[in-house]
Amino acid sequence: MAYTFNVVMTCSGCSNAVNRALSRLEGVEKVDISLEKQEVVVEASTLTREQVLAAIKKTGKEVNE
């Protein structure tokens, strides 16, 4: 499953924080982050969209849905 989120990120530090949080999740196979597009695409085999969203929100970043 691939999930796409619009995440407010202002710098590479922001995107790195999101990447680290998602990379720690078991079941995440791939993370693509575009700082330019403010977009995070996550491929996860065993996680729901809600679980991935919760991990992103734990970083303190705003997610526009």
UniProtKB/TrEMBL annotation:
UniProtKB keywords: Chaperone, Copper, Copper transport, Ion transport, Metal-binding, Transport
Domain of life: Eukaryota
CDD domains referenced in this protein's UniProt entry, alphabetically: HMA
InterPro entries in UniProt: Copper_transport_ATOX1-like (IPR051881), Heavy-metal-associated_CS (IPR017969), HMA_dom (IPR006121), HMA_dom_sf (IPR036163)
Domain HMA: 1-64
Similarity section: Belongs to the ATX1 family.
Protein name per its UniProtKB record: HMA domain-containing protein
